[in-house]
From TrEMBL:
Keyword annotations: Oxidoreductase
Keyword match Oxidoreductase: yes
Natural source organism: Penicillium cinerascens
Gene3D superfamilies (UniProt xref): NAD(P)-binding Rossmann-like Domain
GO molecular function ontology, one term from the record: oxidoreductase activity
One Pfam assignment: adh_short
Family: Belongs to the short-chain dehydrogenases/reductases (SDR) family.
Coiled-coil ranges per UniProt: none
The protein's name: Uncharacterized protein
Keyword Heme: no
InterPro entries xref list: NAD(P)-bd_dom_sf (IPR036291), SDR_fam (IPR002347)
Length: 342
């Protein structure tokens, strides 16, 4: 598929049968655990709220009759409007609120180990939650908050969910949402915490956390390739959501000016790129769905996706360097105090 901004409905219409158990999951229909009903897949999504892309993703996926949507947020009130929307249009789709504060590793562990103990298989894990360019803060475990919430929480969450994803078998997926900001972001291995906040800059920290997300997907994709589990990092494009809450009015106005004048941005290696155009939430969620189910990109697992297509050529040299994937992986295992059994 060439790069195209598409609505979620279009991607689901094209490939949704893979979710409905007819193609991607066909190989598993002999598995006694799978009944021959269409709606056999389960999806876990983080960052769900009425104004977020993850909330839209949940509503969109409900259209193809999942068996269960596990919707995670740090307050039930965030998820309730989405559950209500799904109940209205798809009363037979089961939903479950999963309470997880991603800035607290203990809460992530509790969420998976206690609250999901009765669910042995999860077909698709979509890590969408994030905070952008916020004032300096630390997670409960002492990490700079954007690195902690946007990246390290995913590293731990996926580690804990991996047995369930592996149990779901080939064609399952792990989707790590990132951003076009990776083009300007760098991971400062020598000082991930911005000297305990002294050198903190909100956009640099957002960029760093997204670089980490993309490198994580690269390494995880490599490790899970032989098992047929899909892993992609995703740039959803520019969507008006709750994410912009920390962006100052002056900076917003500046970016709109750049958009109007087609100002080119420059990435870490000096390559030019355009500021992404505003799109709808449905268009933002579409590339996540592409990552989950588009069969034509399965061989590119680990890749960075943008506008429903593989876009690795957009990644700068630090992100492409495989030694950095390994360095981050090992560092992250030390941070979570656990190794991945892969
Ligand atoms: N919107 C864009 O233009 C854009 C562009 C590029 C990439 N992205 C990426 O797309 C993803 C979705 O963002 P969005 O635009 O939908 O933003 P959003 O509306 O702000 O959604 C992000 C969600 O993450 C949750 N979250 C933040 N901190 C959390 C924490 N500590 N624990 C648990 N949940 C937490 C938020 O919940 P609370 O309300 O409780 O904080 C919120 O529901 C993000 O990964 C973002 O980096 C977005």
């Amino acid at each position: 598929m060439s790069m195209q901004i598409l609505r979620s409905e279009v991607v689901l219409e094209k490939y949704g049968k893979a979710l409905a158990g007819k193609t991607g999951i066909l190989t598993r229909l002999h598995d006694p655990d799978f009944s021959h009903q269409a709606n056999i897949f389960k999806v876990l999504i983080t960052g769900v709220s009425d104004e977020s892309i993850a909330g839209e993703l949940a509503v969109q996926i409900s259209a193809v009759n999942p068996k269960l949507l596990i919707l995670s947020a740090r307050a039930e009130s965030k998820v309730t409007p989405i559950i209500n929307k799904i109940k209205e249009s798809k009363p037979n789709v089961a939903t479950r609120f999963l309470n997880m504060e991603l800035g607290d590793m203990g809460a992530i562990r509790k969420g998976v180990e206690n609250d999901l103990a009765d669910i042995p298989k999860i077909d698709h894990v979509v890590c969408v939650a994030a905070v952008m360019a916020c004032p300096y803060a630390k997670t409960k475990d002492g990490f700079e908050s954007q690195f902690g919430v946007n990246y390290l929480a995913n590293f731990l969450l996926v580690r804990l969910l991996l047995p369930k994803v592996q149990a779901a078998g080939p064609s399952s997926s792990v989707i790590i949402v990132a951003s076009s900001v990776v083009r300007r972001g760098k991971l400062n291995f020598d000082d991930i915490g911005f000297s305990n906040g002294e050198t903190y800059e909100g956009w640099a920290a957002y960029g760093q956390s997204n670089v980490a997300r993309v490198m994580f997907a690269k390494k995880l994709g490599e490790k899970l390739k032989s098992k047929g589990i899909r892993v992609f990092s995703i740039d959803p494009g520019a969507v008006r959501t709750g994410l912009q809450k920390h962006v100052s009015p002056d900076f917003r106005a500046q970016v709109e000016e750049w958009r109007k004048t087609d100002k080119a941005m420059t990435d870490v290696d000096g390559n030019k790129y355009d500021i992404p155009p505003w799109t709808t939430r449905s268009e933002g969620a579409a590339t996540m769905i592409t990552g989950m189910i588009d069969p034509t990109i399965a061989d590119f697992t680990g890749s960075f996706l943008k506008q429903n297509a593989v876009a690795n050529e957009e990644l700068h040299s630090q992100i492409r360097d495989e030694q950095n994937w390994t360095r981050l992986w090992e560092l992250s295992e030390a941070f979570i105090g656990e190794i991945y059994p892969l």
